[in-house]
Amino acid sequence: MRFDVLTLFPGIFEGYLSESLLKDAIERGALEVHLHNMRDWANDKHNTMDDRPFGGGPGMVLKVDRIVPCVEEVQTFAERPGRLVMLTPQGRPLTQRVVEELAQEERILLLCGRYEGFDQRVVEILQPDEISIGDYVLNGGEVAAAVVIDSVMRLIPGVLGDENSAVVDSFSSGNRLLEEDQYTRPREYRGLTVPEILLSGDHGAIERWRLSNRREKTLARRPDLLDGEEMKIDEDEKKKKKKRSKKAKEPEQIAEPENVVEAKPSETPDAADATENNVDV
Ligand SMILES: C[S@@+](CC[C@H](N)C(=O)[O-])C[C@H]1O[C@@H](n2cnc3c(N)ncnc32)[C@H](O)[C@@H]1O
Fold first, then answer.
1. What whole-number distance in Å separates Cα of residue 108 and Cα of residue 85?
2. What integer pLDDT is reported at residue 235 of this predicted model?
3. How much distance in Å is there from the Cα of 57 to the middle of ligand 1?
4. Which of the ends of the chain has fewer CB neighbours closer than 10 A, N or C?
5. Weakest mean pLDDT among 51-60, 179-188, 200-209, 268-277
């Protein structure tokens, strides 16, 4: 996959591109990132890229007669013009579903604004996909472009060590909810222990615990992520729980514990050790 970043400050990307997963992906040829200094398209002796807004007001606006030729020329630098993304707080929100959509592209141009942003005619002429990384205002589109690259590259085959991790992460295609709590060795730290069930070796029970943990956490923190169906399942579970606790109370007045996990962990140390030895560290 190829990214072309159009920016007034290409230096911002240097450290980011030369570290960790991104560096490896570029070296292995899974990813190309080309930086273009938009100022190279300024055609006056002062290298002017911006001007005062018509009608008055604060700040400076990026000039249409600099930005449009710049984008159009960069589009010719590869076989296909690619998808043009403009980073702007006024765009559609970047979600994991949008990231998945972008990951299908062969080439993406990321147009980074500065100052007060772009002359509106840039949008009218180029009709970019306008994307926002959140309801707040950054100084420039560079950090937002890095966010797009960072999130999209995880979905490119061969970039992550274990591709399955991008499927089960929070919001992802295999799990639209928040991911469950994660633990690794040691089993106990400062009196806090790992949930027994994760040491049981009982894969069915572990899966049920994970699902339940994901759903409880999502309900508490991000109920907006639970769609109608998930909500319905949750309501059903609450009803069942209420019924069970009512039944339990009736004869003996004993309250049912709050734990929703039904499977019992295996108590055998062998199973627990087998699981522990398989922990990836
Ligand atoms: C200071 S901002 C301009 C904000 C603009 N005047 C407005 O109110 O919508 C400068 C540039 O930063 C980038 N930017 C700022 N916030 C952003 C966000 N939430 N998502 C994506 N890009 C953003 C855009 O490229 C924008 O052109």
1. 7
2. 61
3. 16
4. C
5. 268-277
Chain centroid, CA 116 distance in Å:
26
The residue annotated as part of the active site, out of 116, 130, 216, 230, is 116
Position in ligand 1 atom list of the atom nearest CA 137: 16
- pLDDT exceeds 80 at position 252: no
| 116 catalytic per annotation | yes
Question: Which residue do the tokens 């087998």 mark?
Answer: 274
Q: What is the CATH number of domain 2-153?
A: 3.40.1280.10
8 Å CB contact between 61 and 71: no
Contact call for residues 266 and 202 (beta carbons, < 8 A): yes
**Residues 212-224: pLDDT tens digits?**
999 999 999 999 9
Q: pLDDT (tens digit, 9 = 90+) per residue, 63-103?
A: 999 999 999 999 999 999 999 999 999 999 999 999 999 99
Q: What does the angle CA 252 – CA 255 – CA 258 come to, to the nearest 5 degrees?
A: 155
* Rounded Cα–Cα distance for residues 149 and 110 (Å): 9
Give pLDDT, residue 162: 83
Pick the range with the lowest mean pLDDT from 30-34, 99-103, 149-153, 273-277: 273-277
CB of 229 closer than 8 Å to CB of 236 = no
The backbone torsions φ and ψ at residue 241, rounded to the nearest 5 degrees and listed phi first, read: -65, -45
| Closest residue CA from atom 26 of ligand 1 | 113
Query: What residue ranges line ligand 1, CB within 6 angstroms?
Result: 87-90, 112-114, 116-117, 132-134, 136-141, 144
Report, in angstroms and rounded to the nearest whole number, the Rg of the chain calculated over CA atoms: 26
- How do beta strands 50-51 and 61-62 pair? antiparallel
CA 125 to ligand 1 center in whole angstroms: 19
Tokens for 105? Answer: 């592209």
Interval between CA 110 and ligand 1 midpoint (Å): 13
